[in-house]
Design a protein that fits this description.
This protein is mostly beta strands and 187 residues long. The chain is built from no helices and 17 strands. It has strands spanning 6-10, 21-30, 33-39, 50-52, 62-66, 70-74, 86-88, 97-98, 103-110, 113-118, 123-128, 132-133, 137-144, 147-157, 165-166, 171-177, 180-186.
Length: 187
């Protein structure tokens, strides 16, 4: 095993394809070694995702993956890819899609696979799901311009003066600060 490979257990309840985009859903102790339990990306956005090796992994089985490196990854979008653009995961899917944040496209390896470099996402744009009052928190629907990407984060107010609010459905920018998403811009 190379030093960049991370052992994991398939906790998805279905086979994980080779080159799949995954999210960690916990840990499991195996022979005194802690391994990550991987799942399919869900509505809850992660700042980093894992990429499976070329080997498919059966439910409950074990495999290796990497995070943050250059990797070959599944491309499930029917839109033609362009080197240098951003792509990312989609809830309920094992592949990458255009318009979603998280990875830079470097090139193609074979049909359905891209060479990508992951970057840690620290800023997202979206729309509030409800009204955000000063000092409060709100669910933010992550968007690419006006297209809802299906991801949600809980973000906290970091800018409002008492008595002011951001309305439901208003566009916002959120940033990862001190282990939480905070609203840094609105409108």
């Amino acid at each position: 095993m190379r030093s960049s490979e991370i052992p994991f257990m398939n906790g998805a309840g279905e086979p994980i394809p080779g080159f799949a985009i995954m999210t960690a859903g916990g840990t499991h102790l195996v022979d005194n070694q802690l391994v990550l339990v991987m799942q399919q990306p869900s509505e809850s956005y992660d700042r980093l995702y894992y990429v499976n090796s070329p080997v498919p992994v059966s439910p409950g089985g074990f495999g290796t993956c990497n995070v943050g490196d250059h990797a070959l990854a599944r491309w499930n979008d029917s839109i033609a890819w362009t080197a240098g653009t951003t792509c990312g995961p989609k809830p309920g899917d094992w592949g990458l899609w255009s318009g979603s944040p998280g990875f830079h496209i470097l090139g193609a390896a074979t049909p359905g696979q891209l060479l990508v470099r992951q970057h840690e996402v620290t800023v997202l744009q979206g729309k509030t799901a409800a009204t955000l009052e000063a000092g409060g928190s709100v669910t933010v629907n992550i968007c690419n311009q006006d297209t809802d990407l299906g991801f949600r984060v809980v973000a906290y107010d970091w800018m409002l003066t008492a008595g002011y609010e951001i309305g439901a459905g208003d566009p916002v920018v959120v940033a990862w600060v001190n282990s939480a998403w905070v609203v840094i811009a609105a409108g």
